[in-house]
């Protein structure tokens, strides 16, 4: 640990920073409070401070490792020596400087002959004491990983869609025949055997419902419009409270000024219904005494997603959270949570979250999960209406 701090201390670039670092070495305890630079140095998260000309002023040990360049070398370099100047990271830095805000960008690629990093989340912010300087936190972070996972869920969902088509053809049609035959038999068999024909009918209905549910995995383009997400949430809450979540308290924490979501209303209802249903089932299954589901909407600047196949990036500033105080996600389903047929429930199909991931993917949106006992949170990052559509009549 001591080593780590010492390394961190050494990895500070620039004279001013070094001067600041001399103090804790000389009298580490005298000041009575920890040295912030040493803490930054020891932080296992890569942190870089650039000056107004994008020269490296400070890197911590984690950043040295992340960039694969020593602090001594970095001291002689600027960012453009490491990544080509058309990299989106420069756009982010410019945005930070001109807006004086914190900006985050996800799924960036930092690529040059000496560096190859993909799926990186970069957060940038200004430093009030250092005019023109930008502090960057580089991270192989969870939203980026969530995105990766989401892309693989999408391919899993795609294989389900192929299967759904086969099932519809090969199962649904004969199933109608089986159901009809059972119904005919029902009229003629003895009372004692009627139970069996009812069983056949019910099971045929159950399989049909399952196949119908998989139908939504079809590859149809989404028709999108302006959706008032608060109305959607209201609708979902009412449905839940009049049915499966009648015994659960709902807490609503909305930002009333939130602009409309660019999406498909019915699909968004389906997504939120699945999340709220899971939350209610977790609370009920976990025998939580005062079950609570919290619905939150907020505007979050800076969440962006690359659009595959195009160079552009989509802003996802509209945040919707479904949180519950249930027992948390079971460890054995955590890794494959969004994949089809992953369930911990005796009667679950495991299609709920697969559908959420598929629909979010179709919306160019992102779903993240943050689960621990007593606080499980699903976060949807959704797009606003694009500028080129805003001018049109959306009724
Ligand atoms: N809020 C939550 N709290 C705890 N576990 C959850 C939560 N949401 C999902 N899970 C876990 O994820 C699994 C998969 O959820 P998913 O909605 O895909 O399927 P399901 O609920 O089991 O079945 P279905 O939705 O098809 O009825 C669940 O079985 C459960 O173990
Ligand atoms: Mg479910």
Could you characterize the architecture of this molecule?
A hairpin with a 6-residue loop joins strand 10 and strand 11. Helix 9 crosses helix 10 (265-285). Mean pLDDT is 81; it is low at 1-29. The chain is of the alpha+beta class and 395 residues long. The protein has a five-stranded antiparallel β-sheet with strand order 2-1-5-4-3, sandwiched between helices. Strands 7-9-12-14-13 form a five-stranded mixed β-sheet. Helix content is 44%, strand content 21%. It has helices at 2-10, 15-26, 36-42, 61-67, 71-74, 88-99, 142-188, 191-214, 229-241, 265-285, 331-334, 352-362, 387-390; strands spanning 47-50, 56-59, 103-112, 115-126, 134-139, 225-227, 249-253, 261-263, 292-299, 304-306, 313-315, 318-324, 366-372, 375-382. Magnesium ion binds at residues 274, 277-278, 352.
Compose a concise summary of this entry.
The protein is of the alpha+beta class and 395 residues long.
Helices and strands in order:
Blueprint: H1 2-10, H2 15-26, H3 36-42, E1 47-50, E2 56-59, H4 61-67, H5 71-74, H6 88-99, E3 103-112, E4 115-126, E5 134-139, H7 142-188, H8 191-214, E6 225-227, H9 229-241, E7 249-253, E8 261-263, H10 265-285, E9 292-299, E10 304-306, E11 313-315, E12 318-324, H11 331-334, H12 352-362, E13 366-372, E14 375-382, H13 387-390
This protein binds adenosine-5'-triphosphate and magnesium ion (MG).
Helix proportion: 40-55%
Instruction: Summarize the main sheet.
Output: 5 strands, antiparallel
Intertermini distance: 61 Å
Note poorly predicted spans.
1-29
Sequence of strands across the biggest β-sheet: 2-1-5-4-3
Provide the succession of SSEs: HHHEEHHHEEEHHEHEEHEEEEHHEEH
């Amino acid at each position: 640990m001591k080593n780590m701090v010492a390394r961190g201390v050494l990895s500070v670039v620039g004279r001013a920073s070094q001067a600041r670092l001399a103090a804790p070495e000389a009298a580490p305890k005298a000041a009575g409070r920890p040295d912030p630079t040493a803490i930054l140095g020891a932080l296992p998260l890569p942190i870089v401070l650039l000056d107004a000309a994008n020269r490296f002023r400070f890197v911590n040990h984690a950043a040295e490792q992340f960039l694969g360049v020593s602090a001594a070398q970095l001291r002689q370099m600027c960012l453009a020596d490491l990544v080509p100047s058309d990299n989106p990271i420069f756009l982010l830095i410019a945005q930070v400087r001109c807006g004086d805000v914190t900006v985050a960008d996800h799924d960036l690629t930092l690529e040059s002959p000496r560096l190859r990093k993909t799926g990186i989340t970069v957060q940038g912010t200004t430093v009030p004491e250092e005019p023109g300087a930008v502090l960057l936190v580089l991270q192989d972070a969870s939203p980026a990983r969530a995105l990766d996972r989401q892309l693989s869920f999408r391919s899993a969902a795609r294989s389900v869609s192929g299967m759904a088509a086969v099932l519809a053809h090969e199962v649904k049609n004969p199933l109608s025949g089986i159901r009809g035959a059972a119904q005919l038999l029902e009229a003629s068999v003895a009372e004692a055997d009627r139970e069996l024909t009812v069983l056949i009918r019910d099971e045929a209905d159950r399989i049909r419902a399952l196949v119908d549910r998989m139908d939504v995995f079809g590859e149809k383009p989404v028709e999108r419009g302006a959706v008032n997400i608060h109305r959607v949430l209201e609708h979902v809450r009412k449905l839940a409270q009049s049915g499966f979540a009648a015994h659960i308290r709902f807490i609503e924490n909305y930002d009333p000024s939130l602009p409309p979501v660019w999406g498909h209303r019915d699909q968004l209802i389906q997504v939120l219904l699945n999340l709220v249903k899971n939350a209610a089932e977790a609370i009920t299954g976990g025998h939580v005494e005062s079950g609570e589901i919290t619905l939150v909407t907020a505007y979050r600047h800076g969440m962006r997603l690359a659009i595959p196949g195009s160079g552009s990036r989509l802003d996802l500033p509209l945040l919707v959270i479904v949180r519950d105080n249930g027992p948390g996600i079971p460890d054995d389903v955590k890794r494959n949570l969004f994949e089809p047929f992953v369930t911990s429930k005796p009667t679950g199909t495991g299609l709920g979250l697969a559908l959420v991931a598929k629909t979010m993917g179709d919306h160019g949106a992102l779903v993240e999960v943050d689960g621990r006992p007593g606080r499980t949170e699903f976060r949807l990052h959704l797009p606003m209406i694009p500028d080129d559509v805003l001018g049109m009549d959306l009724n």
